[in-house]
Amino acid sequence: MKASDLKMSPLAVAASICVLDSLSGGTSRFYAEIRRLKDCRGSLGGAVPVLFLMDELLSGTNSHDRLEGTKLVVRSLADRGAIAS
Question: What is the CA radius of gyration of the chain?
Answer without folding.
Answer: 15
